[in-house]
Amino acid sequence: MKKILTLGIMAMAVILASCGTTKVSEPVAEKAPYVFTPTEEGDMDLSTANSADYRCVKFNEETGVLSVKGAEYFQVPLGDYVEAGTVIKVHLVGKNNGTVGFRCWLTDDNQVTLADPLYLDCIGEGLPAGDFDLNFELKASGTVANFFLKGPQYGTMIDDIEITKLVLNW
Fold first, then answer.
1. DSSP string for residues in 66-94
2. Taking a C-beta distance cutoff of 8 angstroms, is the pair 105, 122 a contact?
3. Residues 68, 74: Cα–Cα separation, whole Å
4. Which has the higher per-residue pLDDT, 99 or 71?
5. pTM of the prediction?
6. What separation in angstroms does the CA of 91 have from each of 14, 126, 152, 166?
């Protein structure tokens, strides 16, 4: 009985001691909000990229890299409406970690395709794995608002690319 009473008192002492102990943690510094700083004329803010497949399109604020894995499409807003007949010069830099590549074109706010060529293949199928640095032109065939990238063929996904730079000039 004495042992049980002693154990009970010791258990109660431990419980009371732990209730009174409060661990003080250091305040966590708030992370500064991401601020895009263009490095050249036409440099696009990749953090504005959007997709219905939002879990598959991620922007890393520390590296400035847009990672796209398993998304059907994504788009980057142009920031302004661009009128029909305007030629947009595109400089797209990144890395293909996958095997299928992508297509790209211009769209309006409702994702209606308004580009000539209609679907620019950007090497599409067969885009070699590794770094890419692409330069091409798209002509707006209506008022456009977005630069749009999609899987290389109808019904396919962008398997795994990283975009490090997108420059659009018109």
1. EEE-SBSEEEEEEEEEE-TT-EEEEEEEE
2. no
3. 8
4. 71
5. 0.78
6. 66, 19, 18, 6
